[in-house]
C-alpha cells in the first residue's frame, strides 16, 4: 500500500502531469484615487471598490496576473489629457496592491486607450511612462523595452509559454488609419508567432480593444484593413494560439474567429471593474491546463454598487455550439450568455443610437468574426 501511494505521489510530481492552475485578470479598472466612496454605478472605480476586489481574491496564488488595459480613470472635457504625475501614482498604486496579492506572480499589463497621456493616442511619451511604471520589473534582458518603445507591444516567455501583448489602441476605427504602424506591429506579431511555432511554445495573446463589431454602436471596432491583416495572421498560426484575451467594452463577452464555418480561435473579452458602461464591477479568474495551456473554465466574480458581497458564475462551453450552429431563439445557453453579459445586472437604458442587447439574430451574428 505504501509503495502504491509513493508511486501515485511521484506521478503527480512529474512535469508532464496536467494540473489545473489559475490566472487573475483585472480589466478596465479605471481607478480614480481622488474619488470618495461613491457606492454608485456609471462611474470610475474608487479605491473602496478596488480594495474590495483585491480582498475578495483572498489568498489565491497565480503564476501570472494579467491586466488587459485601462487602469487609469476617464478624463472629462473636450481635451482628454492625463496628468503624468497622477498617472505614475495610479500605476504604482495598482501594481503595489497586486504584488501584495502574490509577490511571486508575474504581472503582465497591456496598454489601453485610457492609459495614454493623450486619450486614444499611443505615442513615445506614453510608451516610456508606461514602461517605467509597469514593465521595467519584468524586463530582464531589455527586449521588452525595445519592442514596447517601438510600438507599445511586447512578448514575455516562461518555459514553453509565450504571452504576446499587443497594442490595439492604434487599430481603433475611431482613430486615424494607423497604416505603417499597423503593418509594422502585425509583421512583428507574425514573426513572434512563427518563432513560437519553431520553438514549440504555446501562445496567449492579450490586448485591450478586441476586433469585431461594437455591440452598442453597431460599428467595427478596428479599421477594416487592419482587421483583415490580423485575421490572415491568426489563420496562419491558429494552431499555436491557445487563448486570446481583451477588454475595453467592460462586458463579459466573447468573439469567435471562424474560417469557412469552423472555429479556429476565440477571444475572451473580460468584464471591467469600472461600472461606467452599466455593468456590475467584475474580474475574472481563468483556469487552464498547466501542460497544454488550454483554458477549461472562466470564473467571473462580480459585485453590486455597495461592493460588499462578491458572487460568481462560470463559463466552460468552449465549443461555443450555441454561437456556431444555427441561431436558435429558444437557446438556453444563448439567453444565459446574454444575461451574464452585464455581469448579472439588467441592461441600463440604451443611449440614443445604441441597440438593445438581447439574445437575437444580431447578437448571434456579431459574436463571430469571419475570415473572408
Automatic annotation (TrEMBL):
InterPro entries, per database record: Metallo-depent_PP-like
Transmembrane segments: none
Superkingdom to which the source organism belongs: Bacteria
Cited SUPFAM superfamilies: Metallo-dependent phosphatases
Organismal lineage: Bacteria, Pseudomonadati, Bacteroidota, Sphingobacteriia, Sphingobacteriales
PANTHER family linked: METALLOPHOS DOMAIN-CONTAINING PROTEIN, SPHINGOMYELIN PHOSPHODIESTERASE
Protein's UniProt name: Calcineurin-like phosphoesterase domain-containing protein
Signal peptide (residue range): 1-18
GO molecular function ontology, one term from the record: hydrolase activity
Sorted UniProt keywords: Glycoprotein, Hydrolase, Signal
